[in-house]
Amino acid sequence: MRALQIIFFTLAVIAGFGFGAYKWQSDLGAVGGEFTLHSKQGLFKLSDFQGKVVILYFGYRYCPDVCPTTLSSLAAMKNALPQEEQNLVKVIFVSVDPKRDSLEILDEYVKFFDKDFLALTGNEKEVALVAKQYGITYKVNSPSNPREPENYTVDHTTQALIIGKDGLLKDTIEHNEPIQMGTTKLRIYIKENI
Q1: Model pTM?
Q2: Residue 10 has what pLDDT?
Q3: Which residue from 9, 26, 73, 143 could staple onto 152, CB 3.0 to 4.6 Å apart?
């Protein structure tokens, strides 16, 4: 199973599925790791959730379709689990649009999908560093109407990342992945011992 995952990820990288260019290592040490960003409740570090399976998704509040669809799917995947397993899953939404996405706006946004979702962001440099650390790409587009400079879109990686209880990147959830498939993936990592 582990060998198949590594092969899949390597092929995904070669095909350019949004991770960016990096050398994949069998211990997954080339991507991921500790980070700290801001939430409405204060600073959060990834290690605050050690012992839980973290789903890390990068997007933005004003995303017209991909982000709301993905967050709805992640909520459905989590809620399909028994309650004791739900308690071992934390969904974290990281905004790649800190210019518009205040902590208050983000907190309200993610809680629309699930009251336990956590929204994080930082200044542009902080967000860019974490995105790079996780192989996430994004690009802020020019506004379609110069008279509305705040009305722009952001292209971004559409995969959600699954981080195991040990803090290591384990797997991905694709945009529009079937709910049952995503839930099955989560259960694999929930049952892992650290």
Answers
A1: 0.83
A2: 37
A3: 143
